[in-house]
Protein: TonB-linked outer membrane protein, SusC/RagA family
Amino acid sequence: MRKETQKLIVLSLLGLVSVNLAAQQTAKKDTIKNIDEVVVTALGIKRQDKSLGYVAETIKSEEILKTQNNNWSQALEGKVAGLKIQTAGAGPLGSSLIKLRGDISMNMDQNNALIVVDGVPLSNSTTGTGFSAYGAGAKADLPIDYGNGINSINPDDIETITILKGSTAAALYGSRGAGGAVMITTKSGKTKKGKIQVTLNSYSSYDTVLKWPDYQYEYGQGTMQKNTSGNYFYSYGASADGVSTGGTSSAFGPKFAGQYYFQYDPTLEGQSAERQLWRPYKDNIKGFWQTGTTFSNNIAVETSNENTSFRSSLTYLKNEWMMPNTGFDRFNAALSFDHKISERLKVGVKFNYNKTKSDNLPATGYSNQSISYFMIFQNPNVDLSWYQPIWKKDKYQVDQIHPFSSYIDNPYMIAYEMLNGVDKNFITGNVNLNYKIAKNFDVMFRSGMELTNEERTQQRPWSSANYLQGMYREQHIKQMDLNNDLLFTYKNTFKDFDFSASAGGNIRYSEYTMYDYMADGLLKPGVYTLPNGIANITKFATPSDKQVNSAYGLVTLGYQNKIFLDLTARNDWSSTLPKDNRSYFYPSAGMSFILSEIFKLNSNQFNYWKLRASWSKVGNDTNPYKLIKYYNNSVFSGSVEAPSLYPNPDLRPEMLTNIEAGMDFSIIKNRISYSITAYQNNSKDQIVDIPALYETGYSKRTINAGEVRNRGLEMTLNTFPVKNKNFSWSVNANWSMNRNKILSLPDEFQGQPYTLASVGGVVYYNAVVGGSLGDMYGYGLMYSPDGQVVYGTDGLTAKPTEMKKIGNAYPKWRAGLQNEFRYKNFTVSFSFDGQYKGMAYSQSHHKMTEQGKLEHTLIGRDNPNGLIIGEGVVQNPDGSYSPNTKGVAVSVYYADYYRRANVETNSFDTSFIKLRDARISYSFPKSVTEQLKLTDLSLALFGRNLWMWTKFPLFDPEAATLNDNQITPGVEMGQLPTARTVGIQLNVKF
Structure:
């Protein structure tokens, strides 16, 4: 290796010089990359990419800041093969889970990638409200997306993100890295000659709804009732025209044809004195939503020299979301300091503070007090303005205006009175010391922390459907996560061999407490305090503490910079496992062969060829308090509740075995590079909860059982079709597929399915041997041998007695495509991504179809006598089949065919293509910046989710449900709209 190249890599390891900048300075004009890329791997160890036996993809800060997401992780969507950002579509904070290479565990909470910030793992945990997404008609509340740890990381402070896929890449993180790891390195200050550099990044963005359901505005409220003259009619309350039809939520009433009926009069708060024009209000759902706005300003100061680097950053973001009176304020402060105290000792400090505050975040789910519920039940003939006063005359804070049903809360009361506040303080940071013991021997100590202090409030006014006398609730959440690492490293070169060995240990300790207070009913309406409660319910804090001690080692051997071998070993001792099984050991091995060096294939046309392979085993523990019997705090002071979980004192750790192999090559002076990876993960001895016999006094018990296998393929292509002095065009593409198979289940099920999760009591995620995680089960249609739908003699669909597999929540494959064009000082970039197949059940589609709110329910309304004959067959007494000829009322047909329990007819293909982001920017030339005494000045227009193709009928095919604190894919249960965003960004350096 050339000396200047070695020097550049050393400088990059010290964090003083950008590798990309160095590459550009030493590269030939027509060559894209000329030195080995350095990437951040497990424990924050920096390695040459060529030496790795696994895939490590790096995303630069420029990609994260291109389109300025409220949640930085969503900028990764479609950029990395095998990566999926799972959100619940539940509001502006957009809690996200990052999944790599599919699900490996039957425990849905154990399938996410580990987030690591500057070498310190982030818990990324969430605390829910304790309520499910389906709560209509019950005295229950709703899930609220308060954000998770990912939200708290400021994108302006991110320098690089390295994706370590699979357990081999994250082997040194143990059980927390079983699903791969996302390594975030924050900025640390890099300037020339010790100069102070100030950077200002400011942007404004505007959100509108990306996609609406196909609402129908041809027919109004009603259930196909006729008057004494035999004509369809409408009447709000009984009138001369007939009985009241204004209490239904259905839109199977008369067609809008210029007729006049007695309708609701907002002035009288009742029936109009005269007949009013029967007309639709086509903006009575969309008109409730507004243009959302986000304003963000970041200022950063940094400087560095050969001994010291320093950076500080302040960011303030203000968001007003698309739903009125919702949004949040976020303040971030970051500090980074690295100093070389002596030739032997270096010290580094990282500190990040986040404060997120909101007076109101939207609730999600299918329940009376969600805005989603109102949108489902709103009728075409109802003017949105009728609801705006909120309160009836002389009944302020006592009785709301909801004239059509006591179950449908006023949308403006939901927005302005049913408030969900949060005040969250989140701190992460670490201190690291690096001491050179000898020439080739050093030691690193790092202590990192994560602290959360969060206060939440929820208020519900009098007359709300679920709380007739109101409600007020407070949640106080405290969480602490401490990580301490000690790592010894020895490096040396022996003739043709490069040798590196590291050994160390980690102690991780976490604490969590949550105090929950509720005033169930308010003595005085509109006064939201705990002392004003009719009945006060207190849930005392239940501790959730955990400690894991670890010892680990890493050996890396390189031969002539052509062949590399990695060996790792780790042993964990977890407090959540019994004494005899508390210790578990797991190793990994990886090799890479630089074939272009071995066979001397280097040329201008063929630049690089690498083969890689790796194998690993990773252990996994479980949640606290599953070993012995623990009593829970009761809502009654001084009492406890018996546990519902039967403990298992003999639990063993889960074990995941990963094998992967791949190839990387580049040609034509690195203008075309290609990567392909195949992998297999087997997870066995899974820790699962299964139902217990009721006579035991428990509802479930924890056991070790089951094996799941994932197989997949990933491909990445990077090209520069054109690159010259004034113009360049780069194309990046990726494609990935994952196949999941359940190899075994607990013997206790004796061939019966194991239900991993369910949503709304209709969709069940059942595990069946030979099936896949993500398989969705529910009731569906019955079919004749030739595939026709079977109907009963009543003209309605035949009802099955057993559930069947409807589909799978996960797609067959995903792909992404990015293009970037540079012409002189202009840059234009855009990114598409999409998926093929996958399935999602839609509760909103069921209910709006049942009520005749969607365009597809117009079919058959003009039929004679309003009857529709279902297309299919009827089974005859002798077992044969004949065509169905029985007509039923249109409203009855749609209510039955798309009934809530019919998961099949309410589930849809989630294939899609999205124009995920686009950007056009202009960098002002030096002739301008020098006059302004600036280092750099750029202006950009950007957009996110600008266009989408899909056959999914609701807001977004990337549907998932926030169920308490769990994001469950494949179910739309009161989903909130997805935003289309456009914005403008100004970046200044001086």
